[in-house]
Amino acid sequence: MAGHRLGPLLLVVVLLLGTGAGSAGAGGGADEDLRREAYRLWERGYALHLIGEFEQAILLYRRSLDAHPTAEAHTFLGWSLSQLGRLEEAIAECKAAIALDPEYGNPYNDIGAYLIALGRLEEAIPWLRRATEAPRYCCYEFPHFNLGRILLMKGRLAEAKRAFERALSHNPNYLPARLALDALRELMGETL
Predict the structure, then answer these.
(1) Are 168 and 177 a contacting pair, CB within 8 Å?
(2) What's the pTM?
(3) Tens of pLDDT along 16-57?
(4) Could you state, in order of their start, the residue ranges of all structural domains in the chain?
């Protein structure tokens, strides 16, 4: 279990993040204090997620949502739930994120990825397409790659190739798309 190996590291990460959020300044009032507290809890949850402490991350994301609900906290809560195989709960959290901020792209892609994992490929496609069109999203390569995965599973090789190429147009260094495209080109008999 990750907690036993990473105990001292976990303690250091939690302590550092617990003090690194900055202090509440003058003004802003109670609502701003709740936003700061929610962000601090979200940061700590994210750090715990990254080291594999998903149960603890879930607790902190929920506390963050109690302090001040955000699309990010719902989405990342869903991500931690998904790591524990709780995909339906993860999808519900992503839908809650979308209800708070329909322009945030991450939850659309995440729903698509969870549906792929559940074998519900057709249901995943519209979610992934919405992620590719979301105004607020850092990583458009993810939904394009996930669409490529679906198309590849369906045997639609030329369309899958275009999806992987679109992923690489957003991030030329995205290794999963690069590897998939190279393998697909080889399968299709194309020279690189």
Answers:
(1) yes
(2) 0.83
(3) 444 333 333 445 688 999 999 999 999 999 999 999 999 999
(4) 1-20+29-68
